[in-house]
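Human:
Care to share another protein and its fold?

Assistant:
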Amino acid sequence: MPETRYAASTATLLTDVLAGLSLGGLVLPEAVAYAGMANLPPAAGVIALLGGLVVYGLVGTSRFAVVSATSSSAAVLAAVTATLAPGDAALRAELATGLVLMTGLFFMIAAALRLGQVSEFVAKPVLRGFSFGLALVIALKQLAQVAGARTEHGDIVHLVVALLAAPWPRAGLAIGASALALLFALQRWRRVPGALVVIVLGMLLASRIDLGARGVGVVGAVGTQVALPAIPMLSRIEWLSLAEVAFATMFVLYAESYGTIRTLAARHDDAVAPTRDLLALGLANLVSGLMRGMPVGAGYSASAANEAAGARSQRSAWICAAAVLVVVATLQPALALIPQPVLAAIVIHAVSRTLSPAALAPYFAWHRDRLVVVAALLGVPLLGVLDGLLAAIAISLLMTLRRLADAKVSELGRLGDGHDFVSLALHANATPIADIVVLRPETPVFFANVEHMVAAMRRAIDARAPVRNVIVSLEESPDLDGTSVEALRDFAQEMQRAGHRLVLARLKPAARGVLQRAAILAETELLELSVDDAVLLVTTRR
């Protein structure tokens, strides 16, 4: 038995080693490419990769998640720094560090408050529409690099104008197109690190041909110097500006990361711990920021590649980090020869999955959230990455408020001869109870909709006049805020003056407790019982 366990442990370790080495061929080129996208030195992407792999591997829960810089975070970083510090490279670097640190801090706060479901505040239609628009902008920006275009703007108009005016060097276009075609061809074999293959071929080409003479740039020195941990010296206004964007960045990173972690865990029946993963992502971003790296999250493509490579535990991430560190430390001259069009092809290939309309098609087929998807999709190309990101989150929150503010109130009737009470408007065979009107708000009652709810209940009572007994089922409201309590207390007083007997049924403990503390009229009965029991209580006391 001990020999069997030893053999299983050895086999698992070997599988993790192979997976980690294979993964390194994917994530290192992407890290360098994303750093270029963010207008930062390649070392920033490498530091983010190493910090994310090591820290999440120590603290996180997913055995497959690969935490590193992502295309979305790189695009946001570039947009923020370009907006706040145009033309000032030193300040842009300080702002980038500040944004990463603030993002990590918000992750830590969310973990302390146990907000493991924080990403669900961004509705999936909004997130998918935003991701599609962002992927489109990222792809066009990378195409602009291949074409030799230069633009600091992220909106679609400036990008298209820059592409039309670009010199389009033939050599760069040929290299980029060939690399992209090879990446799509190699994706059929999931264990083959396509990004590494095109990187090696690109370096071989650059070693034999003077690409600079043909208008094609190369990466240059990646750099292994690690700065001492430091907090950037920024003004109060700059910190406040970064905080606004960092909060939104945290939302998007966690939505992407948690979606990746949850999807891979479901395939293998693994447990998930959202709060712990929030903590792990927060620590990873803090470490990356202190070392002058980029924002990090669990990207789906790299994590899925880790799973496909056969990873069994988080050791594959540590082995990948060790392999990346060795390559960067020993192959500096070779890495400096990576052609820029090859990196652009790697980024375009990475975001191409997001550009599939299949993820958006269901919302149009269901006739649900179509306008929201379109608005989120167009937000990034038309407003730019930064404003598009904030607009997408604002749309998500407005969707929630609009749904909750719906003041629909249903009148209920008994279904047949049973104990069930259902909406009279939806069930033709339901009948009202004589001298009793039974009402049910269809959404949780809170400060933004309570007055409309009360008005709707008044109209329903007037429509049944004369009626003496009123039963209101508050089953949709687990708790009540102060505004709602005041409105219900006033409603109870109004019912008393009109000669109605009011019963509040299906009360949850928290809602019943606050109504009792509010000293609502003694004549108003507060019940945790069902509507059927409330009707029985009223009819037996007539």
User: Anything to note?
Assistant: The chain is about 60% helix and 5% strand. The two ends are 76 Å apart (CA to CA).
